[in-house]
Amino acid sequence: MILSDTDRKILHRLQSNLPLVSRPFLELSKELDIDEGTIIERIRFMIEKGYVRRLAPIINTQAMGREATLAAIKVPEDRIDEVSAIINEYSGVSHNYLRKGKNKDIPYNMWFTMSARDDEELHSRLKEIEDRTGLTVRSLPTVKKFKIGVRFKIY
Amino acid sequence: MKKEDADVKLIKYIQEGLPLTKTPYKDIGQALGMSEDEVIQSLKKLLEAGKVRRLAASIAHRKIGINANAMCVWKVPEERVDEVGKIMAGFEEVTHCYERPVYPDWEYNVFTMIHGYTDAECEAVIQAIKEKTGLNDYVVLYSEKEFKKVGVRI
Description:
The structure holds two protein chains of two kinds.
Chain A: H1 5-14, H2 24-32, H3 36-48, E1 52-59, E2 67-73, H4 80-88, E3 93-101, E4 110-116, H5 119-133, E5 137-140, E6 144-148
Antiparallel strand pairs in A: 2-4, 2-5, 3-4
Helix pairs in contact in A: 2-3
Chain B: H1 3-14, H2 24-32, H3 36-48, E1 52-59, E2 68-74, H4 81-89, E3 94-99, E4 110-116, H5 119-133, E5 138-149
Antiparallel strand pairs in B: 2-4, 2-5, 3-4
């Protein structure tokens, strides 16, 4: 890792909201005691090198009127590449992972998140995946949220 | 243009990344035909309404050394879901905590996503949750392979 202490300080702060003022990086420079130009340059560096994916609004799909779910599917070993390629074609799919139970076996191995304009579109897409793969898709939408806030401890 | 359309237009323009300039909101405004103040006020309202969770950096966690993640699913009695959900959410390493439905072949109703620098760190959090909640029926799901991981876009 090539991140300096300055970078870590910036990274840690940037996981919370960027100030909504005319010169947000100047505001950060006062908070962090790092020069405004340096902050902008280091953010650019960290994006370029792939440490930061983007500095952008993190969207609440449901509040924007979209529907989303976590879906699980049992895919035979020899069809994993084929089925994951089908699922990944959908732009509403933001995550798709192969998961395995560590302490117990579980009935599904492929887990993906899907969002759509509304409930109808969401279900028709899941149904389409079932039709195209011949496999059953289990939909596990959120019933209640206790926490969503991917902020990491930066050592 | 309706307010909602203007919001969607604004989000679409910046969802790949804010301009990295001294005056990002002014620059966004210039591109979209809005004033700097209109951009700031629109973003403020989107945040207040919860339509935008944060205006912040998305970190490539693996790249900065947070290599371990475990999705841990728990079988929690219905009447304890609220109490237990709050305890789990209180752990810094627990980044997501949701209640989800059960099915005949799926009885784990509370999902926690745990991120750590090592597997041992994730395991320690799971142990601490077990002790604090008294729950014992859970499965740790490790990701064997990542097929897709992108931020949510509209």
